[in-house]
Amino acid sequence: MYDQAERLRRLLQPDRSSLRPATRVITVTSGKGGVGKSNLSLNFALGLAAANKRVVVLDADVGFANIDVLLGRSPRHTLADLVRQRATIWDILQAGPLGIHYIAGGSGLQDLINLQGEQLNYLVDQLEGLQGFADYLIIDTGAGLSEGTLRFILSADEVIVVSTPEPTAITDAYALIKLVASQNANKNIQLVINRAVSPQEARQTAEKLALVAKRFLNLELQTLGYVLDDPQVQKAVKEQVPFFIRYPHSTASRCIEQLVNQQIKNGLAGVPADSGIKSFLSRMVSIFRNR
Ligand SMILES: Nc1ncnc2c1ncn2[C@@H]1O[C@H](COP(=O)(O)OP(=O)(O)OP(=O)(O)O)[C@@H](O)[C@H]1O
Ligand SMILES: [Mg+2]
Fold first, then answer.
1. Which residues contact 37 (CB under 8 A, 6 or more apart)?
2. pTM over 0.90
3. What confidence tens digit (pLDDT) does each residue in 73-90 have?
């Protein structure tokens, strides 16, 4: 049994056991709810899988299960079982389409916020098992800025902020970016504009946000891309099949392919040198320690 300080020291040691590139941890979030985070997380993951990347999606929405509903599945185990030490990481990993894996959130995820001691050690140990298993860990967060969500944002290597062109979504996205920048001015934040009616509207929305971020926060906001408003998305949601699978030739699926191409093209630009599951977990642990 070891204490948290020891755990942190161990996590901070370079990982010599694996020569694989580190797993990239991307948290997907938004200011306003309902802007398309879960659909983006899942379909972006599938797009990456179609480009031969190994992807795990973690549903970290405290309130509602999202990913398993979009997939039309009911998982046997959830992250809550891991938090409560009732299951291992390999029990809770569910196989999804195109070889992706996902971890369902489950109610009781609130426990995550109060974790300490042995429980926290167990969680960290288990999640560390994903290192080398996936190229990407994509974390879908819930609506509104909870303490848990902020932790996932601050611990990730990259953050995707989703906004629609609606003024309320834009102001909420700005408020979120401002809060994140106040905690970590160097966080790699990328914008994705969802539900724009044209590429031009998407660009204008991204430009508006980038302009205020530059002027008031002195932050260079990058844009990963956009997903256009597409009725096939709603259809796929109702059919409980991800649109990238159900409607691969739809406008929304083509937008996902562009996002994936851009993500791959960006390579490691803007990604912290210490990216990966270990660093992600060590950031999580230090945030837990300092709260
Ligand atoms: N590109 C799109 N085109 C058309 N409709 C969309 C698009 N993206 C999302 N939607 C619609 O918005 C709904 C909400 O999407 P989603 O559940 O992904 O949002 P969310 O941000 O995860 O919500 P929450 O904040 O509640 O977690 C979808 O069920 C779908 O009807
Ligand atoms: Mg959601």
1. 28, 29, 30, 140, 141, 143, 162
2. yes
3. 988 888 888 888 899 999
